[in-house]
Amino acid sequence: MTVTDPWVVLFLCIAGTFVWRALGVAVASRIDISGDLFQWFNCVAYAMLAGLITRVILIPSGTLAETPDFDRIAAMLVGLAIFFLWGRNIFVGTGTAFGVFLCLTAARHFGTLPF
To answer: Does the global pTM surpass 0.85?
Structure first.
């Protein structure tokens, strides 16, 4: 049995994940969610997520880079508008953005878009 054995690797991954989850459970009851430090971590997490989403939309890689900027930006804007119009429903907004992007991509593929 070596460290490269798949079962050993699987066990080490499970153990590593369990340690951090157990530590999180132990510490979670001591965290004041209205405290300044927690609010700062929350803001940093949202900023990182916003940066990642912006990067995926404006500077994509892989297959997504082959799609026009207009399709990605239009889908995001329509999804964002629907998100707010439907009372900040994340599922409706995300589903709408996906649907708009899918329709624009399909329309370009079949040559039915005039631009």
So the answer is: no
